Amino acid sequence: MLAGAPMVSLRSSSLVRLDRVGKSFGNGPPVLAGIDLAAAAGDFVAFLGPSGCGKSTLLRLIAGLTPATAGEIEVAGRPPEQARGESFLVFQDPNLLPWRRVAANVELPLELRGEARAGRRERVRQMLDLVGLHDAADRFPWQLSGGMRMRVSIARALSVAPRLLLLDEPFGALDEITRDRLNEDLLAIRQHDPFTAFFVTHSVAEAVFLSNRIVVLAPNPGRIAAEIPVPFPYPRLPELREAPSYLAVLADVAKALRAVLP
């Protein structure tokens, strides 16, 4: 876990609002229906639900990558397609360019924005320091472990200082020990460089450890079946996973998830 990160107050006004949102593709049945959700700046919202319930589609709607077919979405008071500079979507696959070194991969969004080279290089240095990879700046992606590649992906996302980070099962392909470590690192990074987060996962334990709110989606069509608050303050230490209160929240979330399984 990254050490020495200062405690930062993450709560402020509303940042994301979804009102009766629905999504269909072509003439097919609705993938999502009647989604009502508001997230304050500083929230960490985890989405859980069975495969096919629309979790990833929901992230894409918020990111402005695909339009809703019903309802209304606002990010920072604007439609998502007008607020793309406010958010960054991180996928399960780090999607690093294999011919670019680590530093050049992190720098890419800044290049695309046309920012000056000196400023880009300094921001890259800051982000690699933040994720603990300053010594890997000149390596290629194939020279890194899976966990290191995901850290590079997160550094790339944070390079543009997004207010909203959308994470679609970013640690799903990693072993449990690496996943736990990256969960701790992600929260430590967030204490240092605050952002609001929407996080898709299939892991109840991951959702409880990371988030302050858990939204459980039911399928056919995807809809909100339950919302469960997570009461533990930040920063969160690894020892939390052994606390009876943590295990009690795990049980509550697992019960809500079992209720929506086909």
Structure overview:
This protein is of the alpha/beta class and 262 residues long. The chain has a domain at 14-95 and 163-258: P-loop containing nucleotide triphosphate hydrolases (Rossmann fold), CATH 3.40.50.300. It has helices at 55-63, 102-112, 117-130, 146-158, 176-192, 204-210, 244-258; strands at residues 14-23, 32-40, 44-48, 70-75, 87-90, 164-168, 196-200, 213-218, 223-229. Strand 6 (164-168), helix 5 and strand 7 form a beta-alpha-beta unit. The model is unreliable at 1-12 (pLDDT under 50).
Highlighted features:
262 residues; alpha/beta; Rossmann fold; 6-stranded mixed sheet; 3-stranded antiparallel sheet
Q: Could you name the CATH topology of the domain at 14-95 and 163-258?
A: Rossmann fold
CATH class category of the domain at 14-95 and 163-258: Alpha Beta
C-alpha geometry = globular
Radius of gyration: 18 Å
Overall mean pLDDT stands at: 91
Largest sheet: 6 strands, mixed
Largest sheet, order of strands side by side? 5-6-7-3-8-9
Q: What is the number of beta strands? A: 9
Percent range of helical residues: 25-40%
How far apart the termini lie comes to 37 Å
Name the poorly predicted regions.
1-12
Total count of helical runs of at least 4 residues: 7
**CATH superfamily membership of the domain at 14-95 and 163-258:** P-loop containing nucleotide triphosphate hydrolases
CATH architecture descriptor of the domain at 14-95 and 163-258:
3-Layer(aba) Sandwich
**Helix/strand order:** EEEHEEHHHEHEHEEH
Query: Structural class, from helix and strand content?
Result: alpha/beta
Taken as a percent bin, the fraction of beta residues is 15-25%
